[in-house]
């Protein structure tokens, strides 16, 4: 596929959310070739006003859902809607933590499921799927009438950024997200206001002061899952933007030389180095379920802050006290001269879904997703997982749990200062593997700030120089 240059800020204006982007060009990554032959074996029915996607009404539908912080009950709700509308069709819904392990071999074979929630640590590389023509373009779904209003297209029901996040060259869309994810520093307002009697820190000096106060009371300032150290990115990324501005973030996205060796990156790593040096970080969670263990320690009051995403309210629900008052805080400013203000928020659309190109019931898969973006299903998603759906206005007027209410407040406060880590989507190994290893070594005290920066830059340079990876070019 050829490179399509799209000006980043023009797209941000169209999306009305700074930091959101229609992806300019597709990266060609190594993966298995597409299997199953070229013949389109997708089952189709008769198109009508009541069946705008031409679903074959008695065709079985199979959906694979990631069994993580959101579980799969919200998806089962959608499957029930599907079976109610098409009583002769059975929805075979499966949940797993091993999405790639269980679905990618079937995609290669040419006999994939019809819908895949491509999430979790064992997710598939979406760029690789698109490059090998294994993911379907769902533009037909986007241009179909929405479930709730036939006069409104599905694409027009989304909050800004959902369509843009699924584009990997031209106008085709290969994945769609269901959650409006908010990343940041999560805390208990009860702990902060009543136990420590302090306010949420807006500067790093204030953060250190809060941690010092907590230490005097026998509480660690921070914790994180050492078994999945990449969680530190959820607090560090917005700080990279605050310290260095959007130019810093774009340099990371476009694999520019020395992007990871800038003064901004150094300042952020040094800030966390001080947390470690003062022993403000509760460590020791290094198993497969490290994120659950760290979150449990946090909800039990052993630490004040944890870097996390907005799924945490649902995932940590079993151990969260009723009076916990969960909140998300924007990352503190490092210096008065920061390029972006306090309140800058890392808040991309999250929890992606895709339909394999060789799915037998491709039309049914798109119909299932059309139902998922109904207000009824979006409201159920919110009730089940305590996270904001991407359907505009779906939860307006509803009683919101503390974490969701806090997330909404943070998004409104951020305004145009929303940032998205696109290199994380384009070159997934740079986050899943390289950053994970780099920050893990750093947090363990096994590498210095300089070593962490150099190692991360070398990893980015390897991708930039790899002839088998077609780079996404800056306009």
From TrEMBL:
One Pfam family of this chain: SBP_bac_1
Subcellular location field: Cell envelope
SUPFAM superfamilies the UniProt entry points to: Periplasmic binding protein-like II
Keyword Endoplasmic reticulum annotated: no
InterPro entries on file: Bact_solute-bd_prot1, Chitin_NgcE, SBP, TAT_signal, TAT_signal_bac_arc
Compositional bias (Basic and acidic residues): 38-52
Predominant cellular place of this UniProt entry's protein: other
Record GO cellular component, one term: cell envelope
Keywords: Signal, Transport
Name this protein carries in UniProt: Carbohydrate ABC transporter, N-acetylglucosamine/diacetylchitobiose-binding protein
Organism field: Streptomyces reniochalinae
Lineage: Bacteria, Bacillati, Actinomycetota, Actinomycetes, Kitasatosporales
């Amino acid at each position: 596929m050829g490179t399509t240059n799209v000006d980043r800020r023009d797209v941000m204006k169209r999306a009305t959310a700074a930091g959101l982007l229609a992806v300019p060009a597709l990266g060609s990554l190594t993966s298995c070739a597409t299997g199953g032959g070229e013949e389109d074996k997708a089952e189709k029915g008769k198109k009508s006003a009541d069946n705008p996607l031409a679903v074959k009404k008695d065709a079985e539908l199979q959906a694979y859902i990631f069994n993580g912080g959101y579980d799969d009950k919200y998806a089962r709700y959608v499957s029930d809607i599907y079976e109610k509308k098409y009583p002769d069709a059975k929805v075979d819904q499966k949940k797993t933590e091993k999405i790639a392990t269980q679905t990618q071999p079937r995609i290669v074979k040419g006999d994939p499921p019809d819908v895949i929630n491509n999430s979790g640590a064992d997710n598939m590389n979406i760029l690789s799927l698109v490059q090998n023509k294994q993911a379907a373009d769902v533009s037909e779904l986007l241009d179909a009438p929405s479930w709730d209003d036939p006069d409104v297209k599905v694409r027009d029901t989304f909050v800004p950024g959902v369509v843009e996040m699924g584009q990997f060259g031209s106008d085709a869309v290969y994945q769609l997200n269901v959650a409006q994810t908010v990343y940041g520093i999560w805390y208990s307002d009860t702990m902060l206001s009543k136990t420590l009697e302090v306010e949420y820190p807006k500067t790093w000096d204030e953060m250190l002061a809060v941690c010092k106060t907590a230490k005097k009371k026998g509480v660690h300032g921070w914790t994180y899952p050492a078994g999945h150290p990449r969680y530190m990115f959820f607090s560090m990324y917005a700080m990279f933007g605050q310290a260095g501005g959007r130019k810093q973030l774009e340099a990371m996205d476009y694999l520019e030389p020395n992007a990871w060796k800038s003064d901004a990156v150094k300042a952020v790593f040094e800030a966390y180095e001080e947390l470690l040096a003062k022993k403000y970080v509760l460590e020791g969670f290094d198993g497969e379920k490290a994120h659950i263990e760290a979150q449990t320690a946090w909800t039990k009051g052993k630490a004040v802050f944890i870097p996390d995403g907005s799924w945490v309210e649902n995932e940590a629900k079993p151990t969260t006290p009723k009076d916990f008052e969960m909140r998300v805080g924007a990352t503190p400013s490092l210096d008065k001269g920061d390029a972006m203000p306090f309140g800058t928020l890392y808040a991309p659309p999250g929890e992606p879904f895709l339909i394999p190109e060789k799915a037998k019931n491709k039309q049914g898969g798109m119909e299932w997703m059309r139902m998922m973006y109904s207000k009824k299903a979006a409201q159920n998603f919110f009730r089940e997982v305590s996270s904001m759906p991407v359907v505009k206005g779906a939860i307006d007027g509803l009683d919101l749990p503390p974490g969701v209410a806090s997330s909404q407040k943070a998004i409104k406060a951020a305004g145009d200062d929303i940032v998205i880590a696109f290199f994380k989507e384009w070159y997934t190994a740079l986050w899943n593997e390289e950053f994970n290893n780099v920050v893990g070594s750093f947090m363990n005290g096994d590498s210095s700030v300089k070593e962490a920066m150099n190692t991360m830059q070398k990893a980015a340079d390897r991708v930039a120089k790899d002839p088998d990876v077609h780079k996404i070019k800056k306009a």
